[in-house]
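Lab notes, practical 5.
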Amino acid sequence: MGQIRTTDGPFLETKEVLGGYYLVEAADLDEVLSLATLLPEVRASHSGVEIRPVVDHG
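Output from the prediction step:
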């Protein structure tokens, strides 16, 4: 408890758990992970944060 764990799946089904989302612009995955550690959801024992890339085709 109290530790942040990073995994590569399995992923949650969005229809069952989505309570909100953040759209973050960052240089790379390391920066996103660093920013994610600031979220209160990361420290909650009943919660989690899933990170997914967004592709800009424009």
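Observations recorded by the TA: Residues 20 and 51 are 13 Å apart (CA to CA). The chain is about 30% helix and 0% strand.
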